[in-house]
Write a sequence for this structure.
């Protein structure tokens, strides 16, 4: 394990790692500080390696590390298939300048050959419906009624 304390207690550090791993798996790219990215990279690579080995024991280990069934399923079904031929090095760190407030070095950590649509997972899809143009004339009628009064 990459023994960086990150100026946190052990419980806080474990929770930070778990949350960053879940975010990285869900969005396939996250922006964080450089020391946190360097702390996360070997752990993320180990998670993908565990997902590639098909066994119940490895699934239980993944579940205990991630504590999220959606992340575990994505590692087992999607990411392990994507990196089947790759021996290692599933993530990359790209330096991203310095944070405005405290000049902390920032970095983007992402999966190699990532899915570009994964970042849009939580965004609501805008539906273009036929009802929208019909509502606009009603609003105009209300405005006209107000103007007459």
């Amino acid at each position: 394990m990459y023994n960086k304390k990150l100026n946190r207690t052990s419980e806080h550090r474990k929770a930070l790692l778990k949350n960053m791993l879940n975010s990285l798996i869900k969005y396939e790219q996250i922006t964080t500080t450089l020391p946190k990215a360097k702390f996360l990279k070997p752990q993320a690579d180990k998670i993908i390696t565990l997902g590639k080995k098909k066994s119940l024991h490895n699934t239980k280990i993944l579940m205990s590390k991630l504590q999220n069934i959606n992340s575990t399923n994505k590692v087992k079904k999607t990411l392990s298939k994507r990196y089947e031929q790759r021996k290692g090095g599933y993530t990359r760190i790209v330096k991203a300048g310095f944070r405005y407030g405290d000049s902390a070095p920032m970095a983007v950590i992402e999966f190699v050959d990532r899915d570009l649509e994964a970042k849009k997972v939580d965004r609501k899809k805008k539906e273009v419906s036929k009802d929208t143009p019909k509502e606009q004339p009603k609003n105009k009628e209300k405005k006209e009624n107000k103007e007459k009064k």
Q: What stands out?
A: The first helix runs from residue 10 to 27.
